[in-house]
Amino acid sequence: MRKACLLTALVCTTLFCGTILSQAQAQTASRLDRIKSAGKVRVCIWPDYYSITYRNTRTGALEGIDIELARELAADLGVKVEFVDSSFKTLIADLTEDKCDVSMHGIGITPARQEKLDFSRPHLRSGIYAITTKTNPAVATWADIDKPGIVVAAQAGTYMVDVMKAELKQASLNVVATPEAREQEVMSGRADLFMTDYPYSRKMLARHDWAKLLAPPTPLAPTAYAYAMAKGDRLWRDTVDGFVERAKKDGRLLKAATNNGLEAIVDKD
Question: Which ranges carry the Solute-binding protein family 3/N-terminal domain (predicted)?
Fold first, then answer.
C-alpha cells in the first residue's frame, strides 16, 4: 500500500512539474508564436514625438526613426506592423495589459521602468535640454535656470521629471500632462522654460520662431533609449534585441537616424 501511494505521488508530482514546465515554455514562446500566427506585430508609439514616432499634422502620415525601424522589425519577422497610439504616461500599462507587443518610441531606460518592463539594447542616447523663449530676460543661459522664482515645466511620465526633482534646489517644478501643455506654460509666461530631449528640441526649433534652446555645459542625465516589452518573455525580448543588434551592424539604424536628423545621438555600442 505504501509503495502504491509513493508511486501515485511520484506520478502526480511528475505530471504536475511537467505541466508547469510546459506552461512556462508555452508562455516564453507565446508572444512570438502569436505574432507569427496573427501575421502582425503591434507596436506602441507616441505620435507626438518629433523625429521618433511623429504623426505629421499636415499629411496624417507617421514618420520618424522608430516608425522606419518598426517596419524593418516587421519585415524581419515576416509580418505586417500595426501601430498603436500610446504615451510615456501609459507606457507600462499598455504593455502589461497587452495593448501592444512592443513599445518603440525612444523609451529612456530608467530603474523604475526596468522594474516593470524588459528592454532591448539601446539604439539612441540623449541628455536633457531646455526650451525657453527668445524674449525671456530671466533665462539667458543654463546657469539662470535654478534660481528663486524660475518655473520649470516637465511632462508627466518622462524621465525629466525625476531628474528635475533631484537637480532643482531653488527653482519650482511644474509637472504637466502633455507636451503641448509644456509649450503653453512657457508661451503664456506661467513657466520660464520646459525640459525635453534632443529629438523634441529639434521640433521646437524647426516649428516655432519664439523657441530658444538652452544646453547644459556638460551633458545632463544622458539616457539610453531602447524598445520596451512586458516582462517575462525571454524569447520575445531576445528577438527584439537581436533585431537592434542587426540594425546597428547592417547600417539600418544609422540610415534611419540620418533620415530623421538623429545621427548625433545614435548609440554605437
Answer: 40-264
| Residues 6 or more apart whose Cβ sits within 8 Å of residue 160 | 128, 154, 195, 196, 197
Structural domain includes residue 2: no
Q: What pTM value is reported for the model?
A: 0.81
**What's the rounded Cα separation, in Å, for the pair 222 and 220?**
6
Backbone φ/ψ region at 81: left (φ over 0), alpha (ψ -120 to 50), beta: beta
Please tell me whether residues 62 and 33 are part of one structural domain: yes
- Output the pLDDT for position 211: 98
d(CA 46, CA 85): 6
pLDDT in tens, 204-218: 999 999 999 999 999
Q: What is the pLDDT of residues 211-254, one digit of tens each?
A: 999 999 999 999 999 999 999 999 999 999 999 999 999 999 99
The total number of structural domains that make up the chain: 2
* Residue 180 domain flag: yes
- Predicted confidence (pLDDT) per residue in 96-132, tens digit: 999 999 999 999 999 999 999 999 999 999 999 999 9
In this structure, are 208 and 239 located in the same domain?
A: no
**Helix (H), strand (E) counts: the chain:** 9, 14
- All residues at 6 or more sequence positions from 258 whose CB lies less than 8 Å from its CB, including other chains: none
Of 269, 228, 262, 264, the residue nearest 248 (C-alpha): 269
Q: Taking CA 110 as the corner, what is the angle to CA 32 and CA 222, rounded to the nearest 5 degrees?
A: 115
Place of cell 518610441: 105
